[in-house]
Amino acid sequence: MILNATHVGEVIAVASDGGLPPEYWAKRATDQIIDIGDTAHPALREQAHAFKERIESVVLHYMKQAIESNRSNL
């Protein structure tokens, strides 16, 4: 049996009242930086997911600092 996978495209997020939150952008950035293969060994996949979560929290932290820094300069 042959199965075909199709790529539907990107999901578009829409926001009002000031745009998308930094959490959205941190996740998008992390998803672009780190991709975890479905065929990776389970132990490696678990470590990779933990690493990805940590990277996302670091990206979010510095995005929030950048926002605060920008606000203080206005």
Describe this structure in words.
The chain is mainly alpha-helical and 74 residues long. The chain has one domain. Helix content is 59%, strand content 0%. Helix 1 crosses helix 2. The longest helix is centred in the C-terminal third of the chain and has 32 residues. The chain is elongated. The termini are far apart.
What low-confidence regions span 5 or more consecutive residues with pLDDT below 50? Answer: 3-8
Helicity, as a percent range: 55-70%
Q: How many strand units?
A: 0
Structural class: mainly alpha
Number of domains: 1
- How many helix segments? 2
Shape: elongated
Topology order in helix (H) and strand (E) letters: HH
| Span of the ends, CA to CA | 61 Å
Task: Give a brief description.
The chain has 74 residues and is mainly alpha-helical. Helix content is 59%, strand content 0%.
Helix and strand topology:
Blueprint (H helix, E strand, L loop, with lengths): L21 H12 L8 H32 L1
Helix pairs in contact: 1-2
Q: Can you tag this structure with a few keywords?
A:
2 helices, 0% strand, elongated, mainly alpha, 74 residues
